[in-house]
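stuck on this chain:
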Amino acid sequence: MKKLLTFLTLFVALFLVACNLTTSTTTNTTQTTTTSTSANTTDSTFLTDTSVVNYEGSYCDVLEVDYTFIDDLLASLTIEEKVGQMLQAEKSGASTTDAKNYNLGSILSGGGSAPSTNAAYNWYLLYKGYQNAMKSSSTQIPIIYGLDAVHGDNNVYGATIFPHNIGLGAANDPDLMLKIGQVTAREVRVTGMNYTFAPAVSVVQDISWGRTYESFGESTDLVSSLTGPYIDGLQSYCIGASAKHFLADGGTDGGQDQGNATLTEEEARSLFLKPYYDAIESDVYTIMVSYSSINNQKMHGSEYWIQEVLKEEMGFEGFVISDYEAIHQLSGSYYDQLVQSINAGIDMLMEPFSWKSAIENIILAVQNGDISVSRINDAVRRILIIKYKMGLFSDDFYNAETGDYYRLTYDDNFYTDENKAVAREAVRKSLVLLKNDNNVLPLSKNEDVAVIGKGASSIGIQCGGWTISWQGSDANHLTAGTTIIDGMRKAVNQSSGTVYDDISKADKVVVVLSEKPYAEGQGDNEYPSLTGSTADSGNAALLDQILVAKSMGKTVIGIVIAGRPLIIGNYLNYFDALVMAFLPGSEAGLGIADVLYGDYDFQGKLPVTWPLSSEGIGMNINSIPYNSDVVLYPFGYGLTYKEH
């Protein structure tokens, strides 16, 4: 009987909605649904962002590389010591003793590879343990410690988590990117760590790609404009950045991760090279190679693209690093893979667990004449120069009196009010208003509103992948932050309005639809939709509740939390207003409330094309021919409260 009543309720709801709403979705991508400015919202009522980052500077800012020192150090190294510098091992695959005995050049923590207690100081103790070990190595060369701090220091519990890059592309604010980079560097340096595998400067061409949210957008110029300032910020406080993934990772056929990009050389250059020029202009310390291929040639084995184009033609002077075990995808034996990748121009090999075998095989390849000594010297010299720029050879790097390595204080630099203010600003600026019929937004702080959906109360969902763990988690309290429903409740705290989690208690309903967190490997989806394979499993039930709410005459406002546009279909007709929030991070709640309640205006513009249906997936501003009939919202679309 209960199932029958539920069915009848939904049937009646559908019938009433069908009678009161149009059933066809408009394809007019330039139509503005806001016809006038709300009475309580004028130009003078909107606040302006004023958050700043007080950058105190670091000793690395004034360092000038002593090339005589570098060359003398290089000349003093044995072949075993040189090859050790070329390896980056996972912390769970190489002990401090291993690092010392083999003179490893670098250690990394992959996604989720945290200390047993995930706290900032424990990360510092981990880092300190490796650096202490290197002091008694035969070379005494400090390590570089790398991690994926790709939207804040996202591996560390309690860090400030910024919107993922796709949202920052919507904000399109170079000054903001500089501040985000500086805050990220500040929080990474609290842990002592000195290297981040960021930024991704991918130019995504197909939203099927599971790493779409790691890209600033589909426009080469957009990605380029944000790349330099972000790197400038990240490389403060002696942190090294890594532009990735070279080349054309965002242009693979069908958006397949680690797939093949079928491109002419002219297309590859015009679409994907420019952000790397900007990265080099900002003196990016490293560049990471892509798993993917161009015309079926794996990038990790491409001497043309790495050695001839990147290093010689473009003048990149930092070191080139491989991606995680990526050389294993090259042809031949492990020996062959090492020879091919190093001769192609890769200087440091991210071989988390095979590093010892790599050292043995590289030495053998040098003895056999398959890798030249000059190629080894070039790679190691590049690595040593970057270590110098990162301050690892400076007296300021280590304080013998305290036994501490250069780091920033926790209380003054980690998840501070200043840092959270920058993240909150980033949330506000990244929100895209897609629809606002009859000016139902902004909300009044004196009215009752219901907020529903798993994404409304989950820190994990609003942060997405690469948060605490590699794939992320939908845990409500994954890390510190403010959820959407809590942010809205705080916004009305001093007013007469109430925020409920039950649609029966309010005439306006905010529905938060979301994708589940994912990262590479699990995020690819040929049909990303509100109920598809990467969507949160609760979305279908939420859509049913929307129909019920509309049948009751309620106003429905949708918020989409996702790493890319999702196919909406006829459900678009059931929303009075619709907001794309992308993956807004830890400060989503207050940032979203700031804009929904009209304290700030919407500023975000779509950094990628929003398809109307499956036919539109892969359509973007670079498509020839461009078919607007399969596009719901074009690149650059976004409404504001001020528009008439």
